[in-house]
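Team,

Forwarding the record for the chain on the shared tracking sheet. I've put the sequence and predicted structure together so nobody has to dig through attachments.
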Amino acid sequence: MSSGEHDGKSPVRLYVAYTSLIDQPTFARLWEDVTAQERPLPVGRRADILDMDLLFNCPSQAWGGRIAGLTPTPGARVPGLLYAVDAADWHALELAEEFPERVPITVRVEVSGVEMRAQAFTTRISQATSMAAVSQAALDIMVRGAEAAGFPPEYIAKLRAEPESESLLTPELLLNAQQSSPTS
């Protein structure tokens, strides 16, 4: 049974988006591309993923660079949008979230003061890397989605600063390393 197959116990699964799928036009386009039936995109509610932080450690061919994953961080919160997704449509999320490179994990989320559990997708440990640039296209869409969803201004500022703080191999670093290395 794949992670998206319905187990017969619940007609819906809770899913929390925190990457490019917080942007409604992007999510709607991907949803329409991968759902066989004409099912409407579920409506998302603002939620916080608890005790997790963002880490741009997931290489993505689709986005041309690294995209965000989650890392356990006590006390941290990542804003997201919580969806109730029909179990029959779970495959659509797997495709949109780049499964199997990104895998579903159970996270704690808080919605309007109520804590519950939901599924989020994050980087498969064997795929994690810091050896490529952060995808500017994915980051721009995350910022656009975060602004439209009313995420906190400090979170949006953190996203905007991400390429500088997260990219380990910048062109300047590589150029300096080349210039300072002895030639043979």
